[in-house]
């Protein structure tokens, strides 16, 4: 991450006009700057290797290599940048595939002027960005799993740790969690560190995926 200046962004979309529009949205903000542009997924992967970037914004549908494929490749790198998927498709499957590919969020092009900047900032805070309709999709998948009688795997987390994961995934701060559970902030942070170590995860985004996958978030 680039603590000394604005978030350095790699922007990939096969339409030059779309890239130009997205770039204008991003660079109207002082904390965001586009340092590289790609016209397809393969070029994005190559640029991610040669440029210092903090965040990759990838169009889902691109030639040579899709945004989802590029996200998987980029997320495998040591010290990988955060990733957002940009799409014109309001599609549950694309959303879930984006999470599986290592993305922090999925932004619809139709509302990029409203959502993209906040999605970038959320990603850089280590938080997921979930657009409203996707919450409905998450609930639907959870209910389908319940109807099929699927059981959640036994957790290696304690009951208190699972409770804290749920609150973290819901976007609660350490201060809020401490107040809700009537424990100190230092205790919350200690639990959080233990949880990340147990699950071999690094941040809130990965904890949120875990919470979704294991059913801790129900809506």
From TrEMBL:
The keyword RNA-binding does not apply. PROSITE patterns: HTH_LUXR_1, HTH_LUXR_2, RESPONSE_REGULATORY. The keyword Cell inner membrane does not apply. Residues 150-215 form the HTH luxR-type domain. One of its GO terms (biological process) is regulation of DNA-templated transcription. Keywords: DNA-binding, Phosphoprotein, Transcription, Transcription regulation. SMART domains: HTH_LUXR (SM00421), REC (SM00448). One of its GO terms (molecular function) is DNA binding. The modification 4-aspartylphosphate is found at residue 59. Gene3D superfamilies: 3.40.50.2300. Residues 8-124 form the Response regulatory domain. It comes from the Bacteria. This is Two component transcriptional regulator, LuxR family.
């Amino acid at each position: 991450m680039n603590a000394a200046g604005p978030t350095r962004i790699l922007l990939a979309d096969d339409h030059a006009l779309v890239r130009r529009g997205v770039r204008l949205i991003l660079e109207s903000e002082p904390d965001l700057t586009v340092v590289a542009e790609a016209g397809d997924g393969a070029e994005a992967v190559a640029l991610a290797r040669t440029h210092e970037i903090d965040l990759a914004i990838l169009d889902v549908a691109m030639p040579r290599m899709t945004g989802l494929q590029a996200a998987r490749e980029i997320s495998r790198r040591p010290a990988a940048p955060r990733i957002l998927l940009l799409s014109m498709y309001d599609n549950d499957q694309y959303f879930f595939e984006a999470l599986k590919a290592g993305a922090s969020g999925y932004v619809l092009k139709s509302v990029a002027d409203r959502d993209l900047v906040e999605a970038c900032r959320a990603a850089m805070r280590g938080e997921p960005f979930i657009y409203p309709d996707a919450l409905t999709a998450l609930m639907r998948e959870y209910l389908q799993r319940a109807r099929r009688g699927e059981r959640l795997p036994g957790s290696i987390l304690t009951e208190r740790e699972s409770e804290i994961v749920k609150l973290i995934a819901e976007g609660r701060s350490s201060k809020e969690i401490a107040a809700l559970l009537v424990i100190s902030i230092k205790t919350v942070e200690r639990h959080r560190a233990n949880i990340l170590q147990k699950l071999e995860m690094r941040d809130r985004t990965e904890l949120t995926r875990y919470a979704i996958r294991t059913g801790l978030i129900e809506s």
